[in-house]
Amino acid sequence: MSNDTATATTAQPGTAPEPPPHGLGVSLPSAEARAKTEGTFPYAADLWAEGLLWAAVLRSPHPHARILSVDTTHAREMPGVRAVITHEDVPGTALLGRGRADRPVFASDVVRHHGEAIAAVAADHPDTARMAAAAVIVEYEILDPVTDPEQAFEAEPLHPDGNLIRHIPLRHGDPDAAGDIVVEGLYRIGRQDPAPIGAEAGLAVPRPDGGVELYVASTDPHTDRDTAAACYGLEPERVKVVVTGVPGATADREDQGFQLPLGLLALKTGCPVKLTATREESFLGHVHRHPTLLRYRHHADAEGRLIKVEAQILLDAGAYADTSSEALAAAVSFACGPYVVPNAFIEGWAVRTNNPPSGHVRGEGAMQVCAAYEAQMDKLAKKLGVDPADLRLRNVLATGDVLPTGQTVTCPAPVAELLQAVQEHPLPALPKDTPEDEWLLPGGPEGAGEPGAVRRGVGYALGMVHMLGAEGTDEVSTATVKVHDGIATVLCAAVETGQGFTTLARQIVQETLGIDEVHVASVDTDQPPAGPSARGRHTWVSGGAVERAAKMVRTQLLQPLAHKFGMSTELLQITDGKITSYDGVLSTTVAEAMDGKELWATAQCRPHPTEPLDGAGQGDAFVGLAFCAIRAVVDVDIELGSVRVVELALAQDVGRILNPAQLTARIEAGVTQGIGAALTENLRTARGLVRHPDLTGYSLPTALDAPDIRIVKLVEERDVVAPFGAKAVSAVPVVTSPAAVASAVRAATGRPVNRLPIRPQAAVVTTTQ
Known about the structure:
The longest helix has 28 residues, at 537-564. This protein is globular. Mean pLDDT is 90; it is low at 1-17. It folds into three domains: 45-144 and 218-246 and 252-268, Aldehyde Oxidoreductase, domain 3, CATH 3.90.1170.50; 292-471 and 611-762, Aldehyde oxidase/xanthine dehydrogenase, molybdopterin binding domain (Aldehyde Oxidoreductase, domain 4), CATH 3.30.365.10; 477-605, Aldehyde Oxidoreductase, domain 4, CATH 3.30.365.10. It is α+β, with helices and mostly antiparallel strands.
């Protein structure tokens, strides 16, 4: 990891200890850090209720089949079984979906992917529930699955809405423009799973008013509540979602397909019902990163300046639409990367297949195209005979340039500065050819080949992502700040998913009000909505709402003092719990000024609106952008094809550093997730059947796989339209690092490397090459 170190100060004997630092810009630790470290933090899987029943779900063993009959007789007659439900037991809307409601709660006539839910059981013991689910007899007529997204255009419709979810034709500039140098490529990106630390779990508790409460690790509780209420045929006020501890989220953390059967079973039995998914169920049920097929053609002049980019992008959405429309918009809009491209012609499609469902995973759309356009830049540099980093510098985007969507980049875009920073950072030393250093070789101490077969490569990549929702999404969040007896409380339905929002909210209130003790209330749907935890929303939108509410409380606190001393509140400041005036006449503590009063305020934050892309892929679709540059250094065993990532040097524009330790952790985690996509992570399927849906068959990078991550530069150029000027930090390293690793493997081997994750055979160099 990075070499950043923290320093501690110790009070001298006879002196009072310094108060702990607080406010924005310091590394305030998470309030839950100790409980999570000690294993006492309550997650959904830890919940319990009196009279608890256990749930299990029957899932389809086929990727595509017609359901001829469902017989639940044997399951219902088993001792201990309290309820068995199918599509016939859904009293309200039977469809769900994040972006588009097209996925049934339970399959009724057709199964469209392996693992689709067909029935659910509640019983007095988890083993009984699982056996009862297995006792449900389903008669299928097996159908040929459509698993190749290219075949989906001509195949019979897999869904009443058809196979085409969205088509975006982007047209920018002169279609007849051409360059002196042309390079082409075909690229494939695999199916990355979010692989949450804890599998999905939840508890549903019936209410006396005929409603239900859902205790789940939701990342968007109000949307989940509305979907559940529609499914249950209830008013939204009679359904409450209480967010439990979220054990990490790099996607839509809690799949609604797990939530909805819980509430149905609780309503049917009148008892609390708990469901804890197995790892296999988790792999089969939730969404994954879109597998993508990309065809590219880059045109450049003799100096290496880009003239035109042509591309075709095909996203495999799997069985249902989910957020595929949004992912496609990002892929098409960023298909040229953070480069100036005067002419761009991109065709993008998202289609249904019988593969596992795809949806929101960190950096969706942008990661896939980054791997492709950076491969094209490497090809172009090789054909021109120029340094790959220098070629990129000739074409980088800057503030004031225009994206292929026609939108002008108004936010800070220090892309050249980022690339130069990683380019100038010293390279790591070469490994010593001694036995004690064999573990440094690709493959580890037992799997490495001869040291003489190892080649070192250096590669570069530039990435970009958008922040917040896009294409007209109404981004809004509401927060309340209350102060009483020297303690501040923040109420905001922004879910803490590991991105550090609760810590940030404490820091904002500390900074604004000078109050050290700040508590952030747990989240449920009795609070006003704050929107989903994705794309850095809560740092911007919810953090902005907290700041506005805290400033309103500050005004309430200072106005009586300002009036008493005949001055405006702007002439008063709060520092370290003390209120002072500009001239030193007034000096008092916040506690004295409060005088036992309770102050509170509620505020909203809503960024400036965006617009949908038009029929030519043009429009101001994005609120803000973030950029990253990474230089990867890898060692490749060219005989075995094994790859070791030695170092990743990273530079990123972050707007403003709000919590240094938290920011560093987010960047390092994002880089590591990207390395997984580059080298190991691919949920494999065979004709639509998921192979090895477990953490043995799906290889996640561990701490031993993490390279030395050097954060060489963080550019703090504040975005004036964002609260605090800060930018989201975790998505763009995920987007950029796979492309950088692939670039370095290309440099080491001379092979094209056109597929992620990189297969060993793609890194093998034969004597004829």
